Structures are given as structure tokens and as C-alpha cells.
Amino acid sequence: MKTFPMFLRMNGRTVVIAGGGEQAAQKCRLILKTEATIRLLAPALDPELAALHRAGRVEWNASPITEQSFGGAALAFICTECAETDAALHGLARAAGVLVNVVDRPDLCEAITPSIVDRDPVVVAIGTEGTAPVLARQIKTRLEETLEPRLGDLAALAGRLRDLAATRLSPRARRDLWAWVFGGEVRRTHARGLEAHAARRIKQAIETGEIPTDCTAPVALVGAGPGSSDLITLRGVKRLQEADIIFYDRLIDPEILELARRDVERVYVGKAPGCHSWPQDRINSVLVSAARQGKRVVRLKCGDPGVFARGAEEADALREAGIDYEIVPGVTSASAAAAALGGFLTERGRTDSLVLTTARRREGDEGADWLTHIRQGSNVAVYMGVQAAPEIQATLEGAGLADAVAVRIVSNAQRANQQIVTCRADALADTITRENVANPAIIFLTQDRPTTVAHRPLPMRTAPDLSVVA
Ligand code: SAH
Questions:
Q1: Does the beta carbon of 251 sit less than 6 angstroms from any atom of ligand 1?
Q2: Ligand 1 and 225: CB distance under 6 A
Q3: Residue of 308, 328, 445 best suited for mutating to test ligand 1, as the one with most atoms within 8 Å of CB
Q4: Can you tell me the mean pLDDT for 188-204?
Q5: How far, in Å, CA of 297 to CA of 240, rounded?
Q6: In angstroms, what is the span from residue 302 Cα to ligand 1's centroid?
Q7: How many CA atoms lie within 13 A of 56 on its CB side?
Q8: Average pLDDT of the chain, as a whole number
Q9: Which residue of 102, 258, 306, 443 is surrounded by the most CB atoms within 10 Å?
Q10: Residues whose CB falls within 8 Å of the CB of residue 346, separated by 6 or more in sequence, listed in order
């Protein structure tokens, strides 16, 4: 950020506007929205500015402009409509230590006026640091459409009721109250012009402490998607914004955390490969204790919380503790990886089974579960398979499938560093090493030729199958 947005308190401040024509009048109209005093510096004023002066809304100084003319001002706009004069006045204003904006001269601007969406006291300022004024206008138009004209009045009403809410409600109940007020029915009622009715509803909620909320469970197990911040669901974003505390993993993109409230507590419970990690039972217990403290908890997991994410263990711990939870699904990596390949997880007439599986073995398990699913018409997506690649290859070779299986690997699917590699099964381990395929990756295995051996051995299966067959 080359410029930093701030809202300045304007009450008791002076703004100097140097110029007496239309550009000066534009700035004057803008600053008249604030509580600042306006000092016009110009030998003559156009009729609009002259009328404002006569009405006592602006001061006017027609003497030759000097450094002192800017004395004590917080901000100066220079818009004499003469380039040389503007440049000279810029020097005087700077010498007086005033922040200056020279109209149409970005190179001479210490302060830049943003595009403004005005629903006073709700004000949105949009800036592009001069790079894309058209984009700023487009954003402004979108916001003008989204923010109903009466929104400022509703915000002002909320402002008047804040003290009452603070004396009656806990901080958490207050957040629920305002989320309810601005998030739905009350806002719609107010926008339709039923302001007194909306005010009564809010006061009633404050007085009774009964706040209608659509947020049912105190804990949400939220799927963040495969890593890019626009692949989380809208419900997931909503839960992030409601959260008091977020427990997140290593594969979570920092941009996704930016979608949460600024003052949310963020706790990293990730497991970096080869490093010290949080044991699962510790994660379970921090979730339970945060919920017991009355916090609204989000457990943010990459992909979908129901796919190789140990969500079930966390859910069990919450259930045992008598704490409600909600599961918010996410885009699982296999979906993201298939899309990255420009393909589909199933295809009518070609792929009729989809298997989500992992190369990680269950304790005490001898065989490779996924192998039983390799057949023509099946798409097998292997999670956590990069390290196990030599083993996967050996298993396929042992089953006589080495040259019958096509392999497509998508590493970091849907992220900036996405990598796609394809090979045959008998070249899997070498390809991963040669191409430097990094974690996290999905390895798709599809049998596209008949096997070279007539009877491939199937592993014995004693434990129930963990993989998901769709
Ligand atoms: N719950 C997650 C899976 C977590 S297990 C989901 O639904 O996707 C971790 C594994 O997920 C990784 O080893 C890798 O196989 C896969 N994975 C996660 N993010 C990925 C990404 N962006 N691209 C490819 N694979 C990914």
C-alpha cells in the first residue's frame, strides 16, 4: 500500500480550497458534507461559491496567497485551473506543513480523494492509488446498488442503541444482536421504510435478551477448499465472520483467514511434515474448552472436513462433551484437482465409480485398500500419496497393473504454484522425483488397458474399508 486509508475527524478542522471555479466548487460540495470549516482562497468566486460565502457556509480570503494563507489547515485542495499557479501553491501549502491535494496532478498529491459511497455515517472509500479510476467507479456503482439508501439511518439507529445494548447484553450477545439486525429481517424492514417497527424490534431484543439467530451450533467444522480463497463456500465465509476463535491447519491459505473478523483469535494447530505437531486429542480438547468458554468456534480444515480430515474424531469429542456442532462442507482436493486437469471425476459411459482413498495405511493393516478398486471404469483419487509413490508403484507392479494404469498427479491444485504431471504407473516414483512433485498432491489412478496378467492377486481385507465409493 503506497497510500493508507484513514477516516479523519473533521470537526474543528479547517480545509483550505484554493480556487474559485467549478473544480473548487466540487471540492467545496464534498467538504460541506463534513463538519470542517472551509477557507476559500481566490481573487474571485463563481456564483455558486459566492452564494455559499454569502450564506455563511464558507470563509473567503481574496488577498494574494502566501504560506500563511494555509496556516492551521488540516488539508488543502488546490484547483485554480492554472497548472503553474497550482504548482506554486502546492509549494506554499507544503511549506505550511499542510497535506495537499492538487486536482488532476497525482504527482503533487500527498492526499488522494477516494471514490466515496455515502450512507452517512456509513461511508465507503475506494482507492486504486491512481492506477484504475474506472475500476474504482465500477466498484462504487456495485456498492451503490448493494447498500440500500436508508442503510445510514439504520447504522445511526444502531449507534443510538449501543449504550443500551452494552448495559444489557454480553459481548457475544451484542455481536449476535447486530449480526441479526444488519444481516436480515430487521434491515429489510428498515429498508422498506418501516423504521419505527425496526427500532421496536431491536429494542425488544435488547430488553428481553432474546436474539433470533440462524447460527445454530457453537462449533462449526468448516471446509476451506483446496487453498485459494475463492473456493471456500459462502456459508464457510459466514461462519468465519461469526467466529470468536479459529483453529486452522497448515494447508490453509492465509488469505482465507483474512475473510474472518479482524480481531478473531487464530490458533494454528497444524502438522508440518517432520515437525512437532499437535496431537489430535489436544486439538479435540481445545475445541471443547473454547466452546465451553462460550466462544463461537470454527475448526477450519483444508478441502472438505469429511474427507481425510479427522473430522469424525473432533465431532465425537464434541458430542461426548454435549456440544453441538455443524459441518460446513468444502471443495475436496480431488474435485479441485480434476477441475485443474480440465476433466471430471466421473463421466457417463467412461467412469462410473469414484474412489477417494489414501496411501496411508491403517494401523495393523497389511494390504493396500485402494488396489481393490483399480479396474476399468473406476477413477481412484489417492490423497497423501507423494511420499508413498514408490510403494504405490510396487503395489501396482505386484498386481500386474504396471502398464495398465494411467497416472495423473495434481500438486497444489487451484493454487498459484499448481503443477500437473502425467505418466504410466511403472514410472510413478521416478516421475515424482524427476519433476520434483511437491505435497500436497492428488494422484489419480485409472486403468485404461486390460491387465497383462490373467489373475491379479487381490489383498485380503479384514477391516472395514475407509475409502469412499461414490
Ligand atoms: N480434507 C482434505 C484432505 C486433507 S488430507 C480434502 O478434502 O481435500 C491432506 C491431503 O489432501 C494432501 O496430502 C493432498 O493429498 C490433499 N490436498 C490438500 N490440498 C490439496 C491441493 N491444493 N492440491 C492437491 N492435493 C491437495
A1: yes
A2: no
A3: 308
A4: 92
A5: 9
A6: 7
A7: 0
A8: 91
A9: 443
A10: 352, 353, 354, 379, 470
- Taking the CA of residue 410 as reference, the ligand 1 atom at the shortest distance is 24
pTM assigned to the model: 0.68
Tell me the residue type at 173.
A
For Cα atoms 140, 146, 147, give the angle at the middle one, nearest 5 degrees. Answer: 90
441 CA from centroid of ligand 1 (Å): 6
Selected catalytic residue, list 118, 271, 403, 426: 271
- Judge whether 322 and 290 are in contact, CB under 8 Å: no
Pocket flag, ligand 1, residue 300 (CB < 6 Å): no
Catalytic residue list contains 271: yes
Cell matching residue 280: 489430535
What is the per-residue pLDDT across 282-330, written as a single tens digit (0 to 9) for each? 999 999 999 988 888 999 999 999 999 999 999 999 999 999 999 999 9
249 is known as an active-site residue: yes
Contact 111/99 with Cβ under 8 angstroms?
Answer: yes
Q: How confident is the model at residue 337 (pLDDT cuts 50, 70, 90)?
A: very high
Residue type, 329: P
pLDDT digits (tens, 9 = 90+) for 137-183: 999 999 999 899 999 999 999 999 999 999 999 988 898 899 899 98
Say if residues 306 and 329 touch (Cβ distance below 8 Å). Answer: yes
